[in-house]
Amino acid sequence: MIAPGERLSRWSVRQYRPADAASVRHVYAETAFFGEPVEAFFEDRELFADLGVAPYLLAFPEHIFVAQAGAQVVGYVLGSPSGEASVHRARLRLLPAVLLRAVLLRYRIGRRSLRYFAANLLAFLHGELLEVRDPRFPANLHSNVLGPYRGQGIGRALICRYLEHLQEAGVPGVHLVTTELNEAALHLYESLGFELLAQRQTNVWRPYLGRSVLLLAYGRKLR
Ligand SMILES: CC(C)(COP(=O)(O)OP(=O)(O)OC[C@H]1O[C@@H](n2cnc3c(N)ncnc32)[C@H](O)[C@@H]1OP(=O)(O)O)[C@@H](O)C(=O)NCCC(=O)NCCS
Description:
Helix content is about 40%, strand content about 20%. It is α+β, with helices and mostly antiparallel strands. It has a single domain (about 10-220), classed as Aminopeptidase (3-Layer(aba) Sandwich). The strands form 2 sheets. It has a 4-stranded antiparallel β-sheet with strand order 1-2-3-5, sandwiched between helices. It has a 4-stranded mixed β-sheet with strand order 4-6-8-7, covered by helices on one side. The longest helix has 20 residues, at about 85-105. It starts with 10 loop residues before the first strand and ends with a strand. The model has no long low-confidence stretch (mean pLDDT about 95). The structure holds coenzyme A. The site of coenzyme A (COA) has 21 residues, from strand 5, helix 6, strand 6 and helix 7.
């Protein structure tokens, strides 16, 4: 851990290894609420990671890169070269184990989580979620960096590495979905040549923020 305001100069980006799984899950949970910890809206970070990031760790480990500072993984970029449909399939493969753990009461599922599931279901039914299905941009991308390590070029280095990797694999384009509140991410993506594809207001976050939020889908061609 570094002190607030202290800049960390030594970090590097490298390919993900299976031993990084717990660290990637940690970064995922630590940054889930617009860069803040998941506990703002969900009780159990293991369940949150099992549903959200575990499918990528299972099915697409070769497409993950991590940033390491000292011995600690402080950020990641990950995605699927063929987009969300393949991620949903990986999630389905994990679902029986997740359901079993839920039945065995291994997760803490309280009012916050139930409200989050309900808000997502409502947003889905009202068509308020954004999923990009554009053959020009088949791959998807998720990236997060731990709070104390932001603003030092780590996010840019991770995303550039992922874009190069996809290019080498012959993927024609990549997309992502973020929100108007992820200001650093918007700046970063736009400066890397991502173009706005679609936008939509969603009420998923209304219980926590008291207002709707604009979802933004971006795409970038890779050849
Ligand atoms: C988005 C994120 C991954 C970027 O990682 P990072 O290591 O902070 O990124 P970098 O240091 O490489 O670059 C950040 C850029 O955003 C800029 N920036 C930082 N805060 C900003 C803000 N509030 N508004 C606008 N730009 C901002 C920086 O100046 C820098 O731009 P520059 O390279 O042109 O100077 C990281 O900030 C993060 O995890 N944020 C919280 C969660 C999140 O938004 N994840 C992305 C979800 S799609």
